[in-house]
Design brief:
Layout: E1 14-15, H1 29-38, E2 43-46, H2 55-63, E3 69-80, E4 83-90, H3 97-123, H4 129-134, H5 144-153, H6 160-168, E5 181-182, H7 183-192, E6 196-199, H8 209-221, E7 226-231, H9 236-248, E8 252-256
């Protein structure tokens, strides 16, 4: 297949999807930037969930690292046809009023969901679930990952994956549905803040091929720019599939590890499958 070949060398190492403890990562923004530099990343996007608070610190750290450019970003929670999707904003103005206001609302929804998750877990005997999860949150975001870490460290589950499977995934006692922002409004925030909207890790969504094509069409028509063709846990078949879809819909291609912390060694900064030939990269017009 035409996309099966990989470029042997990339002039610049891009990683356009990463997290810090401002959302559900485990490193500070400074630690993230320093690690990225050690791993050889030259262009790093900080894309915390529904918050941009770590960008200023990351920019200061990046200024001390020769050869590393920091792209201000965010990963926004979206509801589309009853499904939760994540849309990355790359190159956003973190002070944009509409973006700041919208993200604050999403964080409030997250916190309300967190209280209900805590109540549900406590109802089945998980003591201090809400306070315990909150102790793992170092910023304004309270996520299911914080609950999962609490459950693991208090011997309710062996690892984070099993904590989700047993308690926090759809249909389990600790799962609480949350209505996030709509796709069109999310893209409007990103574009209005001078950024580019990119669909994050499309291979993770339980979406059939027809529904995926509807999503990509709506996303493009609403002003979306790109799709994450290469991400931290997709395989060569998925890369080829989403490379084709990007071209079919006239979308740019992005790449990112979705790094959360060194404990998830399979999502290391900059350690990505080579970018496929034939795609137009999301950074093609960056200066």
């Amino acid at each position: 297949p035409p996309f099966a070949k990989r470029l042997e060398l990339m002039r610049t190492i891009y990683d356009l999807h990463s997290h810090t403890l401002e959302s559900d990562g485990t490193l500070t923004p400074t630690e993230l930037v320093e690690r990225a530099a050690r791993m050889g990343v030259q262009v790093l996007a900080l894309t915390d969930h529904d918050v941009t608070h770590g960008i200023a610190e990351a920019q200061q750290a990046a200024a001390k690292e020769s050869g590393l450019q920091l792209v201000p970003g965010v990963e926004i929670s979206v509801t589309w046809q009853g499904r939760t999707l994540h849309i990355i904003g790359l190159g956003v103005d973190a002070e944009n009023t509409a973006l700041v206001t919208g993200l604050a609302d999403l964080r409030q929804r997250r916190n309300e969901r967190g209280r209900e998750i805590g109540q549900r877990l406590e109802s089945i005997g998980v003591e201090n679930a809400y306070a315990g999860a909150r102790s793992y949150s170092h910023g304004d975001i309270l996520s299911r990952t914080h609950f999962a870490r609490f459950l693991v460290d208090n011997n309710y589950a062996k690892d984070v994956g099993r904590a989700f499977k047993k308690y926090l995934s759809n249909g389990k006692v600790g799962y609480v549905h949350c209505e996030w922002v709509g796709l069109e409004e999310c893209i409007g925030w990103i574009n209005g803040a001078g950024g580019q909207a990119v669909i994050a890790h499309p291979g993770r969504y339980a979406i059939g091929s027809g529904t995926m094509r509807r999503l990509l069409g709506e996303f493009r028509d609403a002003g979306g720019a790109g799709i994450e063709v290469v991400c931290g846990n997709n395989n060569s078949g998925e890369i080829d599939r989403f490379a084709r879809l990007a071209n079919d819909f006239g979308l740019l291609a992005s790449c990112g590890s979705d790094f959360h912390g060194p404990e998830q060694h399979w999502r290391e900064l900059g350690r990505l499958t080579r970018f496929p030939e034939g795609c137009r990269p999301v950074w093609q017009d960056w200066h």
